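Justification of computing resources. Each target in the renewal requires a structure prediction run like the one illustrated here; the chain below, 348 residues long, is used simply to show the kind of job we budget for.
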Amino acid sequence: MGIPFLHLLLLCLTCLAVASARIPAVIVFGDSTVDTGNNNQISTVLKSNFRPYGRDFAGGRPTGRFCNGRLAPDFISEALGLPPLVPAYLDPEYSIKDFARGVCFASAGTGLDNATSDVLSVIPLWKEVEYFKEYKRRLRRYAGQAQAKHIVLEAVYIVSIGTNDFLENYFLLVTGRYRQFTVGEYEDFLIDRAEEFLRAIYRLGARKISFTSLGAIGCVPLERTTNALAGGGCNEEYNKVAREFNVKLQALIQRLCATLPGLRLRYAPVYDGLLRIIASPSSYGIENVNEGCCATGRFEMGFLCNQWNPLTCPDANKYIFWDAFHPTEKINRIMAEQTLRTSLAEFI
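Resulting structure tokens:
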């Protein structure tokens, strides 16, 4: 006999309530894949606080998310019984009362390498950690020492970073890293920076951490466009680098979990998930895997993806990518569901 709908609904609500009680907040570090609006408040050309960004967001308003709607941390927060949006720490519309249930320190364009953040004058990862320290002080004043400690220890931490180090820095030859390191050496350099970061937030109380793998970076529309001489397909050299980095990241995760007491650091396998969609788009209702929805979808992002371009598609749900670099809200939802089933499963 099937479970009556009302009983099933009550069961789902109970599960969400339990998850919310166990996980008091979602705390986010990283780049544009998870930046919910911090770049709005800094002096950089890398912004998305204008239409058509946010076109499918509630009220159709741009928020600084590099997407037509919500990002993966927003969906994860909602699934855990927390607010449906994770607020940006620098957004003046929010207060510590909001941040006590979720906060985002991420900055579009940043990387594990400090030199990457210099390319477009965005927030470096070390500064995100400084904001986290400040947040903890504010949280203690707001909630009291015991509750603040509980929130920090029991929160889920989402980290998504690394793509810009390769696509905006190393492979663009803008900072000289390609002269200092072979690509394998640069991967190792980034892994060392990841370890420094993870140890830093561990010392500050982070325990339940999901670290997102690099995606198939050679398949973003911008890289397909620059790979035109090879037929416009995915840049397999870049994808190979992503796979190599991901292997080293998993080794780092195992090493840190073995040496840092109480650390529950888990790997979120985005690379394989994205390739599954690219390989079988019709299974997901996707019609275009090569271009973004905004403008021509081949090279535009940021200010080149604007409301005056007549070529922007009418239905972003038929696309993997919103602009030439970032996924659509639909893909963010799918990736959030995958993260909940994998790296976050033991926490909920």
